[in-house]
Amino acid sequence: MNAILTGGFADPPTQSAHAFRALLEAMARPGRIFAVMGAEPPAPISVAAGVALLTLTDATTPLHLAGAADCEALRGWVGFHSGAPLVAADQAQFALGTWDALQPLSRFRIREPSYPDRSATLIVELNRLEAQGARLTGPGIETEARLSLPETAAFRANRALFPLGFDCILTCGARLAALPRSTNVEDA
C-alpha cells in the first residue's frame, strides 16, 4: 500500500483523544515528558511528531515543514491525513523541523501584540529528550523541572517577549514535552 495512505491513527476518535490529552498535559506541565503512540509517519519524522501533526493540524491550520521534513513523502502524508495547507514560515501556525532547520526563529509569527494567540507553535525534532539539563520554572511547574534543550538563549529571549513569542512541542521517538512561552529557562 502507498506510504502516503498508511501511518495515520487506526482508531482516530480514541487515539486522537489520547494524543490531545497528552499534548494538553505537556503544555500544562512544561518539562514533563509524555509517551504517545498511534502514528507511523514517513521518515524523517518521529512517531511523536506525527502524533502532534495528526492531532493539531487540519485543513484550517497552516503548516511549515523545515529542512529534511520538507520532503515529498511527508508532504503527501500530511495532505492525506490532515489536509493542513503547507505554507512559508511567516504564515505558519505550526512548524515542524529540527532546531537548526527552524532557524532563524524571527521568520515565524511571534510578535502580534493585538493577537498573541496567533503566534506559531514549533514542533522541534530532537536527537534526545530527557528530564535533565536546563532548569525550567514558571506556570505549571511546582518547583522546577529539567529538560534537555537544544539551547537556552533562544528560550530565554522568547520568555522576555511574553505574552508574545512562540510555543514549542519537543519530540523524540515516541516521546514529547512542551515548552510554552511562559516558561522561565536557565542553564543547567
TrEMBL record:
InterPro entries: PhnH-like_sp (IPR038058), Phosphonate_metab_PhnH (IPR008772). One of its GO terms (biological process) is organic phosphonate metabolic process. Keywords: Lyase. SUPFAM superfamilies: PhnH-like. It comes from the Bacteria. One of its GO terms (molecular function) is lyase activity. Pfam families: PhnH. NCBIfam families: PhnH_redo (TIGR03292). This is Phosphonate C-P lyase system protein PhnH.
